[in-house]
Structure formats: structure tokens, C-alpha cells
Design brief:
The complex is a heterodimer.
Chain A (H helix, E strand, L loop, with lengths): L19 E5 L3 H13 L3 E5 L2 H11 L5 E5 L8 H11 L5 E5 L6 H8 L3 E3 L4 H20 L5
Parallel strand pairs in A: 1-2, 1-3, 3-4, 4-5
Chain B lengths: L19 E5 L3 H13 L3 E5 L2 H10 L6 E5 L7 H11 L5 E5 L2 H10 L5 E3 L4 H21 L1
Parallel strand pairs in B: 1-2, 1-3, 3-4, 4-5
Classes of the chains: A alpha/beta, B alpha/beta.
């Protein structure tokens, strides 16, 4: 007796897609090392070199981005804190994690730090990858209702 | 315009790692689209937004790069200056320039002797075909040296 043909797996209504992180960092060697590390961890990474580029990418690819990791001190009119405020207004469901080598005494940074959403430079890239992966997966599941890859 | 489907073809000549391209482009949407397409085609891609960052990366010597693909018009250190730096300090590293300005094409031919030149907007399939051939030709040259 021949065995029955295996049935095809059901096609999900929203196919899973890679978790996507926007990394915003003006120092190329830092950005490149982190972006490489995150890609090796299985994440898709978009790179922006300042806040203006990040806003441009979010405006055109905002629905693909699951989490933002941004330096605070960057040249140009949009630093990390301004990007945080912009993203909170336009993409309130996308988590923003900030980093800096000299964060100062800002209440916003204290609040982010208490919430585990701030990394002091130099940071451990494994820890950054773990947090971003968790945040991105949670965000993707909230949005699509299916686990992401 | 719809992006062409990425084509993955195994490379000849580079063992143990992906062929690596440094993309230098100041327009973030073009840079990200090109870089992602090249990654989907099997390349490792580093991104720089201007010539100065590209030179910093090349000076660090920490990253193995097989080819540089650069826009011409960028603030501060432009593509021509980057090409001249590479010819002087990394003479065996191929660089490919691109511009949306046809006049710049003539300048590129003058400044970058024997260098091919891409007109923008990027034809992604043409870019991939070119970088594939350039990287394989370089690997072959290294093997026979």
C-alpha cells in the first residue's frame, strides 16, 4: 500500500519576514561593526549615518522596520533624542533604543536607562543583538500576528 | 520601478568568505536599495555615505574589500578624490564610479583611466554583472601572480 502524499503546509496569511533593525550611527567603524554583528545574528539591518537619513528611511520603509538603535550625538539637525521624539510621533509602535558615550543628565535618558532602552558606549554587541532581536520579534508579532524568522 | 529578482550564482576564486563590496553613496535610499540587492545576490556589503568615511574604512585595514562602488557627487570627499586615493594607496583595489550627470562621465574617463563608469539611476542587474566579473577577474589575477 502506498503511503499517502504528504500534505502541503498551510500558507500563512502574512508570511514571516526577517526582523529588520535601523541602525543610526555617524562613526563608520562603529556602525559597520555593529551592523555586521547584527546581520550575523540573523537580523536585516538598514544603516543611516545621521538622524535625517533615519527619518528618510523611516518615511519610505517605516513599515519594514521593527526597532531603531541610534546614537545620541550625531551631526546635523536631528540627533538621537530628536529622532526618538520624531519616531514616537510617527511610528509609536517601533521601539527606539539609544546609545551614547557621554549621555549627560537628561531625564529622558534616565527613563530610557531604567526601561533597559539605553546602552552606554562602548557596549557589548551581543547584548545589543539580544535586546534588538527580542524587541523586533515582539514588534513583528504584534503587527503581523505571526512569529517572524 | 520594480526591483529585479536577485540572482545568486556561486563565485569562482574566493574561498571561505563572501566577495565583499564597499558601496559609497550619499543618497540613503539609493545606498540602502543597492546594498540590500547586492546582499540578496550573495555579496557582503559595507556602506559609506561619503569618500571620507570610505577612506577611514580602507585605512583601518580591518575589513577585506574586493571592490569599491562609488557615487561621484558627494559632500567633502567626492568619488573622483576617493578614486585618486585608491589608485595611490590601494592600487590593486578596483573602483567603479557612478553619476547621474553625463558630463561627469567624461571627467571620470579622464581621471580614472580605463575605469568603467555607470550612469545613475543604477541598473541593478548591470551592477551585479559588472562587480561579479571584476571580482572574479581580480581573484584570477591574484591566483596567477
Amino acid at each position: 500500500m502506498s503511503s499517502p502524499e504528504p500534505s502541503e503546509p498551510p500558507v500563512p496569511e502574512h508570511p514571516a519576514r526577517p526582523n529588520t533593525i535601523l541602525v543610526v550611527e555617524d562613526e563608520i567603524l562603529i556602525r559597520l561593526a555593529l551592523a555586521d554583528h547584527l546581520r550575523d545574528a540573523g537580523l536585516t539591518v538598514y544603516e543611516a549615518v545621521n538622524g535625517a537619513e533615519a527619518v528618510d528611511l523611516l518615511t519610505h520603509h517605516g513599515n519594514e522596520i521593527d526597532a531603531i538603535f541610534s546614537d545620541i550625538m550625531m551631526p546635523g539637525p536631528i540627533d538621537g533624542l530628536a529622532l526618538l521624539a520624531w519616531a514616537a510621533q510617527h511610528y509609536p509602535a517601533v521601539p527606539v533604543i539609544l546609545t551614547s558615550g557621554a549621555p549627560g543628565q537628561s531625564q529622558t535618558i534616565s527613563a530610557l536607562n531604567n526601561a533597559g532602552l539605553f546602552f552606554l558606549k562602548p557596549y557589548d554587541m551581543d547584548n545589543v543583538a539580544k535586546l534588538l532581536t527580542a524587541k523586533a520579534k515582539a514588534r513583528a508579532q504584534d503587527r503581523d500576528g505571526v512569529p517572524s524568522t | 520601478m520594480a526591483e529585479p529578482k536577485p540572482i545568486r550564482i556561486p563565485f569562482r576564486g574566493i574561498k571561505g568568505r563572501k566577495p565583499t563590496i564597499l558601496v559609497v553613496e550619499d543618497e540613503v535610499l539609493l545606498r540602502v536599495a543597492l546594498a540590500e540587492y547586492l546582499r540578496d545576490c550573495g555579496f557582503k556589503v559595507y556602506e559609506a555615505s561619503n569618500g571620507a568615511d570610505a577612506i577611514s574604512l580602507l585605512k583601518s585595514r580591518k575589513y577585506m574589500i574586493d571592490l569599491v562602488l562609488s557615487d561621484v557627487d558627494m559632500p567633502d570627499v567626492d568619488g573622483f578624490t576617493l578614486a585618486q586615493w585608491i589608485h595611490k594607496y590601494r592600487p590593486d583595489l578596483p573602483i567603479q564610479l557612478a553619476s547621474g550627470d553625463r558630463k561627469k562621465s567624461d571627467n571620470a574617463k579622464t581621471l580614472c583611466e580605463n575605469e568603467p563608469f555607470f550612469a545613475k539611476p543604477y541598473d541593478l542587474q548591470k551592477v551585479v554583472a559588472f562587480v561579479r566579473n571584476a571580482i572574479e577577474a581580480r581573484a584570477k589575477k591574484k591566483r596567477s601572480a
